[in-house]
Write the structure tokens for this entry.
Amino acid sequence: MDHAALLTSENAAFAQLVRGADPALPIPTCPGWTIRKLAAHIARGDRWAATIIRTRAEGPVDPRSVAGGEQPDDRDAEQAWVQGGAQSILDAIAEVGGDTPVWTFTGPKPAAWWIRRRLHEQTVHRADAALAIGVPHEIAPELAADGVSEWFGLLTARPESPLPEGASLHLHATDDGLGEAGEWVLRGGAVGLEWEHGHAKADAAVRGPAAHLLLATLRRSQDGVDVVGDESVWTHWLERTGF
């Protein structure tokens, strides 16, 4: 999967979507946010990541110190501003090299780690904007499945598990062609969360298209997924996986 190319295309789609929307429109899936705030979150977040990469940061960077964070009022200028943030990440990677270790909130990682992280940030927030505006949106199954895996990877970096110790959860994407990449088994460990691709009997199973699973696991929408088994395990998961 070409994460860099997908970052560019997802970012462009997001920028175009928010450009045509009312800036004051509330985002129900991000309580307290508007379209304008969502655009700022993406554009400033991308520049923050680019700064981390370009400076080879070994620790957190204050988002307020990042250059280019002022949001334009003009809609065309705002669209260019949003797209410039994603490009700044790719430019920073080209400058320092994708293997250069930099700070992330999960510990030191190769600089290219930020491309995948920011890609899935764009993907989910594009869905947030589309849901708020009331327009159709699609997420390709392969991209959605990768987003689910990326989210689980972030959760394993946390010291606490969103599942009780010994509890298990199985997610199964029903799209054709995903194979093992579309199945996940999660278990609550003694310390933190454990997960792997595969098929196994679990306390609860969640099935649906990968795009629906992505939005469900990120607590955007439960539409299009079916829960089988102990539904309290899924409820427990959702209550403890805020970002």
The domain at 3-133 is CATH 1.20.120.450 (Four Helix Bundle (Hemerythrin (Met), subunit A)). The chain has a mean pLDDT of 96. Helices lie at 3-19, 35-54, 75-96, 113-133, 141-156, 210-217, 231-239.
